[in-house]
Amino acid sequence: MRRSYISPEYTESSIYGTFNMIEESNFFGAKMLEVEDTISISNQNIIYYQKLTGEQIDISIESSLPSQVYSASDSMKSRQTIIIDPTQLSYQRDSNTKWILTIDLKNILIDYLFAVMKRYRTFEGISNNLTRTNDVNTAIRQYISSNVLNRYKFSKLDLYISYKDLMQQNVLRYKNTWNPNAVSDAHLLKKAQKDLAFDESELKILFTQENSSAQYNFEYYFNILFEKI
Prior knowledge:
Shape: elongated
Number of helices: 5
Largest sheet: 4 strands, mixed
Low-confidence stretches: none
Strand content: 25-35%
Mean pLDDT: 91
Helix content: 10-25%
């Protein structure tokens, strides 16, 4: 065999299949995660076990470690903001104040799906060094973003508002509180404007405080429903 002395433009090297978290389909089909028909995110907790590194390798060992707890309430609280509508007139702000609630639907759903996969140990046996980012938790979130999110659509959100008398404590005016205990049919908000982003990643709810903000602040909470496409 004669040497050509021409250096190759490319070199080939083997990598772990888990480096690519995008499911590839072919003529004969593809492996795909089975998902729930509907996802209701309200006030549930999901418990799972893992190594301190985030890996799930041996349940018999990991169950002796402190459990990990996903709180839907904490997830939704951290991924929402509520502000006073800056476009309203001063007299509106001083009485029936208008509010803008912005909700990060995408990451709330990712948080929930991540916890479910951890609970059912979907990626059991995959160590950090088998992932491109050297972090299995990051790889799981990438998998969800690439393969699972587009299988769901936003269905509805129920917002609950429970008014609390300020009792002359003006220092608490406009200070509204996130509270799962606000959930009640009597507190369900029925009049609101909902603006859903075109990619359904974010929802804005514009509503008017029914009781005067000079006398009441409020506790609030919401439940979210997603449906499989």
